[in-house]
Write a structure and sequence with these properties.
The protein has a domain at 16-155 and 225-255. It has one helix and 17 strands. The chain is globular, with a radius of gyration of 19 Å. The protein starts with 15 loop residues before the first helix and ends with a strand. The chain is mainly β.
Length: 256
């Protein structure tokens, strides 16, 4: 997690060093979502079923329940967006895919507070948990690249956004992704993993720093489904409510 702008305060008489030691493993293992479409290479006019994975071990089996998904969109090659209806208790399905592709499938998780307290984790702010050791307000977004063809020149307006600069890539080629924070190029570390990677939990086989334009070049050496992750944080505006805003942005795609 990017902690360059994070702030930690002396709370409830605990030394800051003790708080950091207790908090860092929890931060490193924080859950985040990713898009899991049924088909990354659908035919034009098809509808694609999808859900949203949840955890910190890709691809995993847990999914985000519908009540925690705020909105989803389909973006066509011209940058036009179509809202996707998210009915509780029903599978998520896109409308018929317009044009010849490619398309972006995107969703935003319901934002929320999470406080770590001596009583355990609480899905509420420091205002409701005065004994909180830490508090984060998370805003998580997910994108999947579908179909074939050139890049889609679109910005979805997410606080932290990771977008492919080129279309689907083949094994051994590099994928360029652009990362922005509040619409500006973001400097930080982009990580990636693929289905079948045998590393430990929260371990990534690929880690690349963005350049001055916020672009990271990712050499994708394995076939199959890939997950690309960027994480950032900054101080929450009111420290009486929470410590920091946390942003997670993920991109999934298929490499052949």
């Amino acid at each position: 997690m990017n902690l360059r702008t994070s702030s930690f305060r002396h709370r409830a008489g605990l030394p800051v060093a003790v708080m950091l030691a207790a908090l860092w493993p929890a931060l490193a293992a924080a859950h985040y979502p990713w898009m899991t479409p049924n088909d990354y290479r659908p035919a034009p006019g098809a509808s694609v079923g999808f859900n949203i994975g949840w955890g910190h071990e890709f691809p995993g089996t847990a999914t985000l329940e519908p009540a925690r998904v705020e909105a989803a969109w389909l973006v066509d090659a011209a940058g036009r967006t179509t809202a996707i209806e998210l009915a509780a208790g029903e599978p998520f399905v896109t409308p018929a895919l317009p044009g010849d592709g490619p398309w972006l499938l995107a969703a935003r998780q319901v934002a929320g507070f999470y406080s770590r307290t001596p009583r355990g984790g609480q899905r509420s702010s420091r205002a409701d948990n005065p004994d909180a050791l830490s508090c984060g307000y998370s805003r998580n977004v997910v994108v999947a690249l579908l179909g074939e063809g050139a890049v889609i020149d679109a910005a979805l307006g997410f606080p932290l956004e990771i977008m492919p600069v080129a279309g689907q890539v083949a094994v051994g080629e590099s994928l360029d992704v652009r990362v922005t924070l509040h619409g500006q190029p973001w400097q930080g570390r982009v990580r990636a993993t693929y289905v079948g990677f045998a590393g430990a939990e929260d371990e990534y086989p690929l880690s690349v720093e963005t350049d001055d334009a916020g672009v990271a070049r990712l050499p994708l050496e394995q076939p199959g489904r890939w997950l690309v992750v960027a994480k950032a944080s900054e101080p929450y505006p009111d420290p009486a409510i929470c410590d920091q805003n946390n942003y997670n942005a993920t991109l999934t795609l298929e490499v052949r």
